[in-house]
Structure formats: structure tokens, C-alpha cells
Amino acid sequence: MIVRRLHAVIVLLLLSALLQIQAGCTDTRNAPIPTKTFTQKELLIGLIPEQNIFRQRERYSVLKRYLSERLGITVKFTSLSRYGNIIDHFLSEGMDGAFFGSFTYALAHEQLGVEPLARPINLDGTSTYHGYVFVRKDSGIRKVADMRGKRFAFVEHATTAGYLFPMYFFRSNGVTSPRDYLSTSFFAGSHDAAILAVLNREADIGAAKNTIYDQMSAENRRIEQELQILSASGVVPQNGLAVRRDLAPELKAELKKILLDMDKNPEGAEVLRHFGARGFVETTEKDYAYVYSLCDKVGIHLKSYRYKNQ
Q1: Residue 299 half-sphere exposure, CB side, CA atoms within 13 Å?
Q2: Which of 38, 56, 106, 251 is most buried by its number of CB atoms within 10 A?
Q3: How far apart are CA 238 and CA 175, in angstroms?
């Protein structure tokens, strides 16, 4: 009798567990349900190489899945090897949008007519970044006069922090031709590479965006111990998503809404945690006023600017 009762209890427990599992599988309260059906079934978005490409792909992978589920279409990200490539490849690869840096956005807006949607909010609550010009503490370099005949690591021709701001920095200090003033200048290709070039004595001076510099400083104590920031730019919008002008208005609006609402649901909050952001904020053309101002002061004409490295 005792054995039969024990057997019955075990069966009831197994049935109860099975019902709970089935209930969990059919619970759609948190399941992403696309609210609209779009004619376009795939969305291609470009990524500029602000940091190590493998680290960047990992960061954006969860965002790609989230957007695909919420939109009900396939979202693909394509990582580009160079900043300037995004202008050429936007057309040749038929991109629908890209996470542009502030300078690449200004270029793409003037040359391709792209429209801004949203940008991430950093973990510190800001949605902007600024540029740094930095040196090794033991370099003896403390002002522009000390930079004559030295080696400078830029990032790319099409970056605000890694090229536009340091060019303004030189010009505002009376140096109109940094190439002639320096012994060597080169393009590292990414912000983290420019920082490492100075840290490892491959360059005497470097330029990079503060978000990458601060992130690397938190991971590598040598940066704080051995490098010194000489100058910082004004703020510009964090790398934000902008899309082609003729993207379907309803798809454009839904994509923007999904990004802006991410922090309002548990799944979106988890994706943001992995992405390294608090949420997304709306971005407009007026947010890039400082970038356009720097271009004017440096003498860059965006519609005809040659953004490729030489």
C-alpha cells in the first residue's frame, strides 16, 4: 500500500512538472510579436571599425537578434574594415542603414542623404563622446611646440575624434600643416589601435574617442599609469543609427520605436546590458552642429571631401 501511494505521488509530481514546463513553453507574455508586416524582408546595417572587429561583432550580435525578432524580418550587420568604406559600400552593397560615427554621419548625410534615427545612451548616462589628444607621460610633450618632429597616430580620415578634432587642435595652435610639422603621421585604423600605438611607443602622440580610451583604461592599468591626455574636444553624438532616405516610412518608424523602447521591457534591458548601454535616445540633424563647425574651421567641404586614407 505504501509503495502504491508513493508511486502515485511520484506520478502526480511528474505530471505537475510537465504541465509547468508546457505552460512555460506556451507563455507568450514576453515573446516578441511584430506589430506590423513589411514588404521588405531583410535589413542590412553597416558597422564602422571603432574597435577590434571581433569584439564589435560580439557586441552587436544580440542587438541584431533582438531587432530581427521585433521587426519580424531578417536584420544583418556588416562590419567594414575602414571608416571611409561606409560611404562607398552603403551604395555598392545596398545598405539600408549604418551605425555612423559623427563625422561619417555628416559625410553620409551630405553625400547620400541619410537620416538619423537613434543613438545609444552610455552607461554613465550620456549619449555623446569627445576626442582626446594624448601622449606618454615620459615623452616630455606637453604642448604643440613639443610635437615638432614627433610621430602622430591618427585613427582614420573619416573620424571626428581620430582626425577632425586633432586637425582642429593643430590649427587652433598655429599649425596649418601637421604633416610637415610632424616627422611621421599614420592611420592606425581604429581607436584602440591608436591608443596602443602610443602606449607601445610606436607613436609619440595619438588621438581617439574618450569612450574607447576610458574603456581600455579600465581594463589596462598601464594606460592610466603611462599616458596623459593633453586636450579634449567638445561633445558629439555617440555612434548612431541612420538610414537611407527612401527606406519605407513605416519600417523606419518601427525601427526607431523599437530602439527607443528597449529599456522598457526585460528582454530589451538584457540586450542593452550586453550591448553596454542604458538605452537609446532620438537623434536629429541639429545634434551634429559641432561636427559641422569643426569642418568649417578646418576647411573641410563635406560634399567633396576625400575621406580615404592615403
Answers
A1: 6
A2: 106
A3: 28
Q: Where does CATH 3.40.190.10 sit in the chain? A: 42-127+237-298, 131-233
Please tell us whether the domain made up of 131-233 is placed in CATH 3.40.190.10.
yes
Q: Give phi and psi for 51, each to the nearest 5.
A: -150, -175
Please write the tens of the pLDDT for every residue from 36-46.
788 899 999 99
| Fold for the domain defined by 42-127+237-298 | D-Maltodextrin-Binding Protein; domain 2 (3.40.190)
Listed as ranges, residues in the chain with pLDDT below 70 are: 1-35, 50-53, 81-84, 308-310
DSSP helix/strand/coil, 28 = coil
| pTM exceeds 0.85 | no
Query: Do the Cβ atoms of 231 and 133 come closer than 8 Å?
Result: yes
For residues 281-304, one letter each, b for 16 or more C-beta atoms within 10 angstroms of the residue's C-beta and e for the rest, the string is bebeeebbebbbebbeebebebee
Contact 255, 243 (CB under 8 A): yes
Burial class (CB in 10 A: 0-12, 13-18, 19+), 20: exposed
Residue 127: exposure state from Cβ atoms within 10 A (0-12, 13-18, ≥19): buried
